[in-house]
From TrEMBL:
Name of the protein in its database record: Aldehyde dehydrogenase family protein
Provenance organism: Xylophilus rhododendri
InterPro entries: Ald_DH/histidinol_DH (IPR016161), Ald_DH_C (IPR016163), Ald_DH_CS_CYS (IPR016160), Ald_DH_CS_GLU (IPR029510), Ald_DH_N (IPR016162), Aldehyde_DH_dom (IPR015590)
Keyword Oxidoreductase listed: yes
Family to which the UniProt record says this protein belongs: Belongs to the aldehyde dehydrogenase family.
Length: 491
């Protein structure tokens, strides 16, 4: 029997108001393995109302920061203890390997512990003011109900980047997962309840973005929107936030360059570049989808990469020997194949890959693909693919490398591979990217800020400063003289 999941609203499992459900497909088998609610604006309304009630309740707003920290630590412990179940749900939804998802869930637990440690570090200030007999101080207060919209590629992890600081600051939330990968979020939400959070603090509403997304982002009781996804949807979210003068945090992907100089450790660089684009099937916001390589080593380096790509094992994501599972869903598979065709049309040469195949159970696979002869104006060098497709561009000087790195409207991540420490720092300063990795790639941490420039988004996630994005400052003035000043001299 196909498992059926329900929304979580006000601490209860809630069937969708209209009684409709969506099949969620396992990318390995290409068959439905579960059902999720096909919610409507009515369900969104119930969830936002529950979050608003919880925000105003003594059960949540009245608890101490120390108690809130204890709840966060408990949640982190439960995520770690239930990592196998969460990883399995995610693998069934998005086709990433179980090995990768298990590691990811174990790391995700640290986000709740880290931000739990900041709960009782939220402090105001006493401001020295010129007016005699007056005390001025500030309070740091939560915003209210936060709308959180997360994508299908790493839903539980990317939710933690939003939810951990939001809860630490004392907010409540309504989560809208991708219709392609909702079950891991729904599984996680039950852990929130088990951890002891009051009902309504965390709510989950599933469904099609076009049907319930606007009801959530336009809701008058939503105080902030936190979104990870594509530029098109992110733009619509930003417009919705602007209409109601509310803040938004947006992480919108990238076209990240890996820049390899001739003095780099080429074996290490080749493995780092390959991991940056082919791990997770390239379905990562920081995928290093552009390789900028020095002219003098171009051919030899591409040969190294091609050899690595040929050894990557595609197959059953539950098999520990598999490196990369199937593409997460058919729309994404079709997008990847369109982009490969565009690269050929624009004059690129395929050094390897470019083809697809159907696995023994029906899953869709794209072989690791390397496009050479790419110029900066080609679509494959400008548009995000979100798949295992690498565009290779040549450079001859450091200046040219900087210009190529900054030649797109994205700026999420960048890798620099060099043995020259001075060059590493020069390049890190000049490349327009929210994160720069030197002689490594794809490293992230709950204690380090993450975000992008330009079309890669607005705001940052991670690090101590991130909690400020879920707080607002109130200024309080107190007259300590006991005398009311007059605005009308002589009266």
């Amino acid at each position: 029997m196909t498992p059926r999941y329900e929304n979580l609203i006000d601490g209860q499992d809630c069937p969708p108001a209209q009684g409709a459900y969506l099949d969620t497909e396992n990318p390995w088998t290409a068959r439905a393995w579960a059902q999720i609610p096909r919610s409507t604006p009515e369900d969104v309304e119930r969830a936002v109302a529950a979050a608003a009630r919880a925000f105003g309740s003594a059960a949540w707003s009245g608890i101490s920061a120390t108690r809130r920290a204890a709840l966060m630590r408990k949640l982190g412990d439960l995520v770690e203890a239930n990592a196998p179940e969460l990883a399995l749900a995610e693998t069934r939804d998005n086709g990433k390997t179980y090995t990768e998802m298990l590691r990811q869930m174990q790391n995700t637990a640290e986000w709740y512990r880290y931000f739990g440690g900041l709960c009782d570090k939220i402090e105001g200030r006493v401001i020295p003011v010129e007016a005699p007999g007056h005390l001025n101080y500030t309070l740091r207060e939560p915003l209210g109900v936060i709308a959180m919209i997360v994508p299908w590629n790493s839903p539980v992890r990317l939710l933690a980047w939003k939810l951990a600081p939001a809860l630490a600051a004392g907010n409540t939330c309504v989560i809208k997962p991708s219709e392609h990968a909702s079950t891991s979020i729904l599984t996680f939400a039950r852990l929130v309840r088990e951890a002891g959070f009051p009902d309504g603090v965390v709510n989950v509403v599933c469904g099609l973005g076009a049907e319930i997304g606007p009801a959530l982002t336009d809701h008058p009781e939503v105080a902030k929107i936190a979104f990870t996804g594509g530029v098109g949807s992110g733009t619509a979210v930003y417009v919705a936030a602007a209409r109601r003068m509310r803040p938004a945090t947006l992480e919108l992907g990238g076209k990240s360059p890996n820049i390899v100089f001739a003095d780099a450790d080429l074996d290490a660089a080749a493995m780092g570049v390959a991991g940056g684009i082919f791990a997770s099937g390239g379905q990562s916001c920081v995928a290093g989808s552009r390789l900028l390589v020095a002219d003098t080593i171009h051919d030899a380096f591409v040969e190294r990469l091609t050899a690595i790509a040929s050894r990557i094992r595609l197959g059953d994501p539950m098999d520990a020997a598999t490196h990369v599972g199937p593409v997460a869903n058919r729309p994404q598979f079709e997008q990847i194949m369109r982009m490969i065709a565009m690269a050929r049309e624009d004059g690129a040469t395929l050094a390897c890959g470019g083809d697809s195949f159907t696995g023994p159970e029906g899953g869709l696979f794209v072989r690791p693909t390397i496009c050479t002869g790419v110029s900066a104006d080609m679509r494959i060098a400008q548009q995000e693919v979100f798949g295992p497709v690498l565009a290779v561009l040549r450079f001859s000087t450091e200046e040219e490398a900087v210009a190529l790195a900054n030649s797109t409207r994205f700026g999420l991540g960048a890798g620099i591979w060099t043995g020259d420490v001075g060059r590493a720092h020069r390049m890190a300063a000049r490349v327009r990217s929210g994160t720069v990795w030197v002689n490594t790639y794809r490293m992230t941490s709950q204690s380090s800020p993450f975000g992008g420039y330009d079309l890669s988004g607005v705001g940052r996630e991670g690090g101590q400063a991130m909690i400020d994005g879920y707080l607002q400052t109130k200024s309080v003035w107190v007259n300590t003289t006991g005398v009311s000043p007059s605005a009308f001299p002589g009266l």
